[in-house]
Structures are given as structure tokens and as C-alpha cells.
Amino acid sequence: xxxxxxxxxxxxxxxxxxxxxxxxxxxxxxxxxxxxxxxxxxxxxxxxxxxxxxxxxxxxxxxxxxxxxxxxxxxxxxxxxxxxxxxxxxxxxxxxxxxxxxxxxxxxxxxxxxxxxxxxxxxxxxxxxxxxxxxxxxx
Amino acid sequence: xxxxxxxxxxxxxxxxxxxxxxxxxxxxxxxxxxxxxxxxxxxxxxxxxxxxxxxxxxxxxxxxxxxxxxxxxxxxxxxxxxxxxxxxxxxxxxxxxxxxxxxxxxxxxxxxxxxxxxxxxxxxxxxxxxxxxxxxxxx
Lengths: 139, 139
Hints:
- Two copies of one chain form a homodimer.
- Chain A is of the alpha+beta class.
- The first copy, chain A, has helices at about 10-15, 45-55, 130-135, and strands at about 25-30, 40-45, 60, 65-70, 80-85, 90-100, 115, 120-125.
- Chain A is built from three helices and eight strands.
- In chain A, the strands form three sheets. The first copy, chain A, has a four-stranded mixed sheet with strand order 2-1-6-5, with helices on one face. Chain A has a two-stranded antiparallel ribbon with strand order 3-4. Chain A has a two-stranded antiparallel ribbon with strand order 7-8.
- In chain A, a hairpin with a 2-residue loop joins strand 7 and strand 8 (about 120-125).
- Chain A is globular.
- At the A-B interface, helix 1, strand 1, strand 2, strand 5 and strand 7 of A face helix 1, strand 1, strand 2, strand 5 and strand 7 of B.
- Strand 5 of chain A pairs antiparallel with strand 7 of chain B.
């Protein structure tokens, strides 16, 4: 799907099915398509959904930078869109992706690296890429 | 973990690590622990997180009903807590669960039953339990 341009009518149908919140955003869960691993949760606005479907690469809305955020634009850790799914009430998207490298800015594969275990909060996954290499000399 | 009572100090540490939004809520993604299937996305407040960790059964905050929502309290489709994870910036939870029956009020296993395919929005999973059986004569 992501390899072919999406027809305008289909895009309009999809955008009409999404219930954006009062800030114009929709919660978007990114899942590695083959392993099922949850990589991250971020937000999209209408323009981000449209760009994601048109470009076949995942684009979010950065709430901190207040602009479109092409995932990996700085770090190179891009997400190729495999499939976009919408939940029953339309207020959450599930984005099946193929993640290049790591999804988390800490250099871990997934942003969910802390778990409640043994009566406390534990770090359960290791850093795979030094964040300095992700955001340092590259630009 | 969910089988044992959580120590008060651990609960305090976990609650302090969560960044609740302006409505006092945190986005919570429920994932079937063994298959990796994303079942639903809902919201928790502090009391819901605490109840989930103390009871070992997932409790959300219902934004429509404005009260705690013990998942399955009406439908019987409960979620046993397997592990609670927190993301890097603390504003999203990943709740690994063992789902009894179906997660979606439409009677489907997952709320994500619509996908962008072939230039349009398609229903990709079937109803497993008649919603009338979930919410009808039971109460």
C-alpha cells in the first residue's frame, strides 16, 4: 500500500474517519510490523496523516517543536509505513512500520524500556546506538 | 508481578515517573502479552494506575462515563495484568495483558479492525462475540 500513491478519495475517507482531539491531534502507536514490538507512541495531525500516507514514511506532529516531524529526519532512524489502522472510535491510529535502527531518542529500539518488576521500576533494554551518534555530528 | 501486592514505595516511584496530562490522564496501550497483538488504547488516571497495579486486573478511566472502568466489569472480557511498562518521557503506558475473550465493544478481538488497504478503509477482522451477548442479558 505504501508503495503506491493513495487516491484522493481514499485519503478523504480516511481523514473523515479519524476523530482528532481538541488540539487537532490523534494518538498514534508505532508497532514493528513483523515482530509486534511496540516502538513508540506519538501524535499526528491531519497534515501528518496525509504526509504519512502519501510518502509511505511515517510523519508525526511534534508537540514540543510545533511542526511536522518526519521520523528519522535528524537521526536517520526512519519508519517505513507498512499499514495504517484505525480503532473503533477513530481516536487512535496503529501504524505498522518497518523501523530502521532504533525508535527511541535514548538509542534504544523501543521507548518502552522501563517496566514494573519486582516491586519497582526497572530498565529492561539496553542502549543500541549512542545518542551522540544519533544527534551529534550527523548535522 | 501482578500476583503479588505492590509495595507502597514502589507504587509511589511509579506514579512519580508518569507524566499525566492536563486532564490528569495517561495514554495506555493494551497489548496481548504473548502474541503481541494490540488490543486497544485507553486512558488511565492516578487511581486507575494504582488500582491496576494493586489488583492485577486492568482498570482504566472512562472519559465518557467520568469514572473508573474495570475492564470487563459489564462484558466479562477482563484483562489480567502481566506487565506495566512506561515510555521514555513517561507520558504513555504499555500494558501487557492476558485478554479474556475480546477487547473491543464491537465483539472483535482488537479495536483496530479497520486498515487502509487497496486505496480505501477496509474491515480486516470479524466479530467473534455478538455485542448483544456482551452487553445484553448479562446485567
